[in-house]
Structures are given as C-alpha cells and as structure tokens.
User: What shape does this take?
Amino acid sequence: MRWLKFTAAGDTSWGLVEGDTVTTVNGDPFGEWNKTSKTHALKDVKIELPLIPRTFYCVGLNYLKHLKEAADKAGTVPNVPDRPEIGYRAQNALIAHDENVVIPAGATEKIHYEGELVVVIGKKARHLTEANAMDCVFGYTIGNDVSERSWQKADRGLWRAKNADTFKPMGPWIETDVDLDRMETAIRVNGKETGRFRTNEMIFGIVPFLVELSKYFTLSPGDVIWMGTDGASPDLKDGDVVEIDITGIGILRNRFVKEKV
Amino acid sequence: MRWLKFTAAGDTSWGLVEGDTVTTVNGDPFGEWNKTSKTHALKDVKIELPLIPRTFYCVGLNYLKHLKEAADKAGTVPNVPDRPEIGYRAQNALIAHDENVVIPAGATEKIHYEGELVVVIGKKARHLTEANAMDCVFGYTIGNDVSERSWQKADRGLWRAKNADTFKPMGPWIETDVDLDRMETAIRVNGKETGRFRTNEMIFGIVPFLVELSKYFTLSPGDVIWMGTDGASPDLKDGDVVEIDITGIGILRNRFVKEKV
Assistant: This one.
C-alpha cells in the first residue's frame, strides 16, 4: 500500500495511491482507518509531509563509498563503524515533496544532497530481536539529508549544517510493500544522473539497527530512521532540482533556492 | 502563572497551580484556554510531562565550571565556545516529575545528573533580534540531562549516553514569571546538596541563543531549549533520589532505579 498525506480543496487527510489516483481515507494508518469513496487525480492534490516524527533518528555513516570519499577529502583513513550507532535530525527542517529547499543567506556553495531510505516505525517496540525486528516497520519513504559542508566542518555539531529550516525533504509518500534487496537509489540533478547505489548495501542493515536501538529506546509509531547515503554530491546552486528515486517507492523531488534577504 | 499538565480521576488536562491547588483549564496554554471551576489538591494529582517538544534543543557546554571539570578529567585544556551552538536530545527519553529514571542493564556506574534550566517556546519565531527575542519565550521548566559517561566517551555520538529511555526528566510544571538573575540551581541527592550554581551565569545567555538559532530555525510553540549545566555529579546508584531545585520554578524530583532483566 502507498500512503499519501495530501491536501485537496482545503482539506488535509491521508489517502491511498493506486496508479494516478488517490482515494481519501478517514483516520490514519497508525490507528483506525477506513477508505472512503472520494478520489482525486494524484496530479491535482498538494502532497504534504507524511508525518512529523516524535523522534527523528538518522544514521550518519552507513555506506562504504560515502565513508571513503569523505575520508579522502579530509585526507584521513576511513573509520568504518564496528557497530550500529545512531544520530538525530531536527523536526523544524522537514519539508514535503515539491517544496523548496531554501539555501540560507550566509551559506557557502558547499550545499550537498544525500539520498536516503527512510524506515517508518508502525508500532511501539522495545528489546526487539533479529527474528521480530521487522514487525515494527510500517513502511518506507525517501529522505534528502541536505548538508552545508563548510558549517559541518567548522561547527561543533551538525545543528545548522544539517538542520537549517527546509534541509530535510521527506516523501512523497510511505510505501508498505518493497523488496529491499532489489532496490536502487538513483539521484538526479536537473534531470542528469549524478549518483546511483544499491539501497540495501549498508554497513549495518535495518535489522541490526532496530535491535541495537531498541535495547535503549522505545520506538513509537511515526518515528523515522534515515538509513544513510552512499557516494557524494556535486555543489548545488540556486535553481537546481534534485530528484531521489528509489525502486519501488517513488521519486522525492525538491528545488533548491537561495534565501532572499 | 504556573502551568501544570496533570491527571486526576483518569482525565489528563492542563491546570494552573496556585499554592497547593490546581485549577483545571480547558484548552492549552499555547492556544485558546479558559479556567474552569474544578480544582484539586496538588498532592492528589499525577504530575505529567508538560509536553513533548516538536524540536528538542539542548546546549552542550554553557557554564565555565562544568567545562573546566570535564577538561580536567579528560586531561585536556577547556575549549570554551566562542559562539552559541546547539545540540539535540531525543523525545523518547522524556519522563515526568516523580517518574523513575531506569539505569539500563548494560550501563556502568558512571550515571550522572545535569540540572538544567529549560526554556519553553510559546510562539512561532524566525530571525529574532536582541530586542524582540524574549517575546517568543512562554516560560521555564527544569530538566535533568541524565548521562552515562562511559558511553559518552566510547560512542561516536550521544545517542544512548544521553537519550536512553527515561534519561530526560522534565518538569514539574512551566512557570511563566521568573527573575533570571536571581535564580539559583541547587541539586540534592537523597536530600544532601551536591551542587549549586547561579542559573543565569551562562557562557551564552538565552537571548544570544534565540537570536542565533532563529537565523536558521523556525522555533515553534512547545519547542524546548535546555540551557546546559554547571558543576559535576557524583556517580548515582540504584535507589538514589535526585532533586533539581531552581529558584522561582520549583523542584524536579526523580528516583534512579536499575533495569530489571
């Protein structure tokens, strides 16, 4: 199933996407819901952010190529994680598919995308095992972990480098049925492919992360875990359109525009 | 005004505390509300977590003594911040006044408190100035930034060291009227004072943080900013009761108990 949060004729609700049609749902996918008879053409609705997570988890380094490229640039040896560890991103930065990423006035030209698979939690879960970990996963969406690399280098933490308003596009919808091992993530800038990797070739996969996190954390419906990215991005500039295309989910597309001051 | 989220007779709502009495309020302090005629004795109600912030901001290093003690322990020179930078904590870790901090089964004895002033945002705000920054502050509460120092040292980030379930007690209520310059933070373990500092003697105060954060972030009603702590904590053990007492706000009290496995 493909769950879309959308607005049509001033009403925001959940819907189910089949082909080019959205069927309005009463309720929400994490609780009680039922399909109505109301439908819209997908092209006629405003796609909204699927949700604001209670806790917004994000894996920093989870693909070998990304790690090596970052180390090469810094002139260091890649420090490959020996166990799954998690970071966080900030809710203020989330925007929907087709909304603009605003490059802050004081930013440098080092604005990069990171195309990521996003795991959406569907059930309260603690102390998961390898055998039952995937039961708490509701579905998958796409994230763009936009980063300002000069700030990332200069600051003590990732606050403005990764969490400036609009730096976390997520969407366009949540897909519940995917084949992780057949997925590829392709990234395009202004229609031209600039990166491609096998989505599930992670240093640590979804199951090890769910098991490790749930040793310490209660996962809640609507929490998200961004799973990291591979490869590197060119510098993005005012007007660039970035598409992140993951097999079986869809395309997350956002235009980058410079803040007007 | 002193805003309390509480449960009585199975109903959870906001209330206003005057002396030892809570008056139930319809609505909530960030939107429309009105006082009802229903009152309870404060001692008869269950005190709830005031709110779950959309974005959970937390200042890492903001008091000189804390910085120096941490540097001394690490055998390094204190690296005093030259500008306000922010970190994050995780919503899963929040608990209310009088709820138990559960020390995870795998934790070492290096469990520490950090008593912090918490700023609660009341209005949507971006690009604040020194002159208008304080207008977006709704009030103040108290936080205990519980930390497992061995994990803090061993891990790449602060995930389980500071965000394990129950590691973020916050409360007991939100006080809107305080005199920042007359506040002291006192911390007691099992009734014995173990730390005391002037709450507002920060390296960077509330105004510089609000101005800097709002250059990049839209602050939202219910967001919180934990302002950092001074001094150091003894190692806490199973059964210890920690009280954080801030002048004009109140006392946040939590018992620490070892996880049963």
The two ends of chain A are 43 Å apart (CA to CA). Chain A has two domains: 1-48, 49-258. The first strand of chain A starts at residue 2 and ends at 8. The interface with chain B takes residues 52, 54-55, 57, 60, 81, 85-88, 90-93, 104, 106, 126, 155-157, 159-160, 163-165, 215-220, 223 of chain A (CB under 8 Å).
